[in-house]
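debug: dumping io for the single-chain case to check the tokenizer round-trip. Nothing else runs in this session.
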Amino acid sequence: MSLPAGQQRTLEGIAESLRLTEPRLTVMFGMFTRLAKNEPPPCREQIPVRKRVAWRRLLIISQLAIAFIALVVLTFATSHSTAGCGDGQRPHADAVSVSHQPTCLAPGSAGAGLAGK
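debug: decoded output
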């Protein structure tokens, strides 16, 4: 198990102070380490691989779902802003052609005058 450098230094400082103040504790920990070195860790301290993989999958799927929803919303918003006009033009509210369709203005125009005239 790896820890951030600051936490590792703190633990090493605690261990060193215990070695200096409690020499019997150091001997007991050494004996415990020798006796338990071939023993597997207790089951309750092990995280099954399935849970980690399932959590990672859930995280990835939720991020993909959010990205998909954002893409759909952006596509919907941009496709309806130029409804009826091609090439990035916007409809002119005052201009109505003979077929009762709005006339489109070029993107740089300010709306002065009619586009069809």
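debug: round-trip ok. Residues 112-117 have pLDDT under 50 and may be disordered.
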